[in-house]
Amino acid sequence: MLSAEKIQSNWDRYISEINSCFSNKRTDILLPFLDKYKERLMMMPAAARNWHHSAFAGGYVDHVLRVFDCSNHLFRIWRTMGGDISTYTVEEMHFAALFHDLGKMGQQEGEYYQPNDSQWHIDKLGQVYKFNTDIPAMKIPERSLFLLQEMGVKVTQNEFITIKIHDGLYDDSNKFYFMSGQKETRLRTHLPLLMHQADHMAAQIEFELWDNASNPKSTSKPANASKGDKTLRTAKKINTKNNPNLTNATLDVIDSFFKD
Ligand SMILES: [Fe+2]
Q1: Ligand 1 centroid vs 11 CA: distance in angstroms?
Q2: What is the pLDDT, as a whole number, of residue 18?
Q3: Can you tell me the distance from the alpha carbon of 81 to that of 60, in angstroms, rounded to the nearest whole number?
Q4: How far apart are CA 7 and CA 4, in angstroms?
């Protein structure tokens, strides 16, 4: 689904973002680890089923970069709408975005996703990859955190909680965090919500881009700022005419998300 050039350019950008987002203290550990497993990480999918999202070679890095981009856009929205962005750092947001799904690689000694040798499962269920049952079962977010501690990267409390519960209420065990019955146990920051939104958005966009393995619609590039600008400004002209409730002031706020 992705060309060799796209897989390579995604990897180059992934490493570049890591270099620019984090201090040497972290990159000195992260970069050798990523280099050791470079081929595996470059080629691994983001999911096992072709109707899920990015279940093809290079899908993992493509997905993680899309979550990174979505999180940057969502950060601007939370900030513009009055969210308290003082409760976390942009580095924490970027770290969670770039490593929330690291556990999809499996253990260091065993890949999680393996090409499916059952044509029936591929044809009937879309299971283009199968799970490696030789490695212990572990939830993806927990394996991400396990691998980070195994390589010796310190994770902040915000990063830990955000990575752990980024699946939101798709995982029942996250109810403790998202459906708190008491004021004291409410999340102290919106970062986990932002990351869940970014991940959900990215996965849905990937499904829409590649909803049929034989019908690729795009080169995987997310809708970028300039395209968004154009679309919104066109919408603004039309909608202010037809919808008096959609004020210019409201549309100016929406436009501003895409300007910085
Ligand atoms: Fe994800």
Answers
A1: 17
A2: 98
A3: 31
A4: 5
Distance CA 118, CA 120 (A): 5
Compute the distance from residue 48 Cα to the ligand 1 centre, in Å.
13
Distance 198 CA to ligand 1 centre (A): 8
- Asked whether residue 104 carries a pLDDT value surpassing 50, the answer given is yes
Whole-number Å distance, alpha carbon 184 to ligand 1 midpoint, is 29
Distance 244 CA to ligand 1 centre (A): 39
* pTM of the complete model: 0.82
How many angstroms does the Cα of residue 163 sit away from the middle of ligand 1? 10
Could you identify the residue written with the tokens 């154009």?
230
Ligand 1 centroid distance, CA of 21 (Å): 19
Protein residues near ligand 1, an ion, with CB under 5 A: 101, 199
Chain centre distance of CA 52: 14
- What is the reported pLDDT for 212? 53
Q: Which helix (H) or strand (E) holds 114?
A: strand 113-115
For residue 243, the CA-to-ligand 1 centroid distance in Å is: 37
State the greatest distance between any 2 C-alpha atoms of the chain, in Å, as a whole number: 61
CB of 88 closer than 8 Å to CB of 188: no
Kindly state the tokens that stand for 65: 């970069």
Which tens digits make up the pLDDT trace of 150-207?
999 999 999 999 999 999 999 999 999 999 888 999 999 999 999 999 999 999 999 9
Cα(249) to centroid of ligand 1, in Å? 34
What pLDDT score was predicted for residue 249? 53
Specify the higher pLDDT residue, 209 or 249. Answer: 209
Task: Tell me the residue type at 199.
Answer: D
* Count of other CB atoms within 10 angstroms of residue 80: 13
